[in-house]
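so the lab meeting is tmrw and i was supposed to have these ready like two days ago... anyway. pasting both below. for each one the top line is the aa sequence and the line under it is the structure tokens. i havent really looked at them closely yet so no promises
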Amino acid sequence: MKGTVLDFSVQSNKGIITLDEKRYHFTGDQWKEQLHPKRGQHVDFEVDEQTGNAINIYFVVTPNTNQQQLTQATESAKEIFGKAVSSRKAYNQAVITCFKKYFDINGRAARPEYWYFQLCATSLLIITDRIDEMAFNIVLTVFIIPLITITVRRLHDINRSGWWVLVSAVPIIGSIVILYWAVSKGSPEENLYGPPPQ
């Protein structure tokens, strides 16, 4: 038989199941699940012919509940996967763009382009630093120019002259200033250095 838990008291270890306007009392030892029953739960149970009480009680998972949970899980997985794919594409595009514009200081660079390229360069530098000094020096040599040019284009995006990149030569304070500008939102409209980056 299938019914609904009307009430259950942990203190008295007793509860009531309702089915077709009839009430069936039960004790906690007849509940066959690990978690305590809760009001409103759908259950499958048998009736003791002698006492009329509910026995052998199990929680019933309705198909609708399963389907809703599966649908929600699927949608969440799709959303997470979509964001991961989108981020991966943006990362790849940023790295490709920065290498295409290796010596190019013209135009503007949006925050994602700047930070994805910084992530790529920093990761490789950290990894090669742990492996071999020669490998580290090679990576540093390859990345130093595009790191400067992307920073200049990032400064252009906030409508600042690329010459401000020289402030990074000032120990500590220079890095903090560049960091602040790097996280700043770019000009939403066309500025002295061109239209907003796509």
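ok protien two:
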Amino acid sequence: MIFVKHTPNHAGVAIYGDCLDFEELYGALHDVVGKENQYVAYQGVRIRVLGFCYELRHALMGNREFEFVENGMDENRMKELAMITPKKNIYIGTHILWPEILFVIMCLSDFILLRQKKNKYPEWDANTAAVHKFQAAVVECLKQVVTEASYKRILNMITHDYTWFYGYTIQYIDILNGKFLAMNKEKRLKSVAIIAKRIAEPDDEYREVREEVLEEALKYNCPADEIQYDWDYPENIQW
């Protein structure tokens, strides 16, 4: 089972599970976001989700985090079963910044809606269920970080019956990530709900970034999704 917890310095979330959990989520995300050019207006958004998949893959390769979790076995249980087993299971994990994970769970709702239009029985789709389960784990973590009023507002942002992330300027998420990292621990905690609102409800800052990106894309005659801001994430984030 995937579980999510907020990090000590509130920079983001720690996502943990066993290898089967991560394999299931990795495969489900790849399937739900579709193949390249399947959803033309979602190419940049799809790439962003695949960036998260990259983190899951590296966790599976043993390049990220580990945590030992109680598995319910003790001396008495082993004696009853006449077998010797470890008392803890090893979970793998990875860290994701709050703006990034908020964007991922929001845009996944769009991909699920797009998928349902082509699926005769969407309620029985295993990969959709796996993605919903992951979204629920992040939302449950979110509930512990923001106020009840903010939590309800964010749920309304995530839950909708129409798609609206098509053509989204993904570079804006890098800017939000950078600004969020520049905050101190206390301000980050207070800003999670604000970040969610900025992702879900484009404001003047978003529109300015979008105009700049489109101008650069026109200048270099390339897709807007290929424009990159001159921003380097710190090598050692104090999570």
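from a quick look at the 2nd one: The chain has one domain: 3-226. The longest helix spans residues 98-116. will dig more after coffe
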